[in-house]
Amino acid sequence: MPRRAPTLYVIAGIKLVKGLVLVLLALGIFALVGKDLQNDFERLVRGFGLDPERRFFAGIGDKLDKITPANVRWVGIVTGLYSLISLTEGVGLVFRVSWAGWLAIGDAAFFIPIEVRELISRPHWFVLGVLALNVWIVWYLFANRRRLFRHHHL
Predict the structure, then answer these.
(1) CB within 8 A of 150, min separation 6: which ones?
(2) Would you give the DSSP letter of residue 150?
(3) 3-state secondary structure of 113
(4) Distance of CA 95 to the CA centre of its chain
(5) Each residue's pLDDT tens digit, 126-146
(6) In this structure, is residue 40 part of a structural domain?
(7) Structural domains in the chain (count)
(8) CA–CA separation, 99 and 96 (whole Å)
(9) pLDDT (tens digit, 9 = 90+) per residue, 63-92?
(10) What CA–CA distance (Å, rounded) separates 103 from 52?
């Protein structure tokens, strides 16, 4: 019988919550396909009593005008696929299968260089927290892989 691993279940919970949030985000992105994003943004800005002709808002509107339905669909597909990876990691970690541990290590480690680069170019406490969380996940799962996944040999 494997020993308890509450930390593993916290990591699994993080992965499951992330996966669910990404599913909802992907669905929201798909809802934007075919919408006039620039016009909707302008109405939103006006709804807040702001002037959409100001340079800041006009610049955002110009960028939104360049987004095509194919771009929106592509972002929705990628977000949806990544949500499935996170959900798979979470479920696999709950059942303590070794491939899920390696998948979670690879997933967390993949973003570490990106987060370091982001911290160097634009330091922010949130990015630092995400970086620390990912480093901790990689370290914990790698350091404890034999104990956590001993009963599942693949």
Answers:
(1) 2
(2) T
(3) helix
(4) 22
(5) 999 999 999 999 999 999 998
(6) yes
(7) 1
(8) 9
(9) 988 899 999 999 999 999 999 999 999 999
(10) 45
Asked whether residue 11 is domain-assigned, the answer is yes
What's the burial of 25, exposed, middle or buried (CB within 10 Å: 0-12/13-18/19+)?
Answer: middle
pTM of the complete model: 0.82
CA 108 to chain centre: 10
- Measured at the CA of 78, the angle between CA 72 and CA 84, to 5 degrees, comes to 135
Report the pLDDT averaged over residues 6-24.
96
Q: Do 93 and 12 form a contact (C-beta atoms < 8 A)?
A: yes
The pair of three-digit structure tokens given for residue 78, joined into one six-digit string: 């990628």
C-alpha to C-alpha distance for 17 and 35, rounded to whole angstroms: 28
96: number of Cβ within 10 Å: 18
Report helix, strand or coil for 51: coil
In a domain, residue 140? The reply is yes
Segments forming the whole domain that contains residue 114: 6-149
Q: Is residue 1 part of a domain?
A: no
Report d(CA 149, CA 109) in Å as an integer: 19
Task: Please check whether residue 103 is in contact with residue 90, taking contact to mean a CB–CB distance below 8 angstroms.
Answer: no
For residue 59, count CB atoms less than 10 angstroms from its CB and return exposed for 0-12, middle for 13-18, buried for 19 or more: exposed
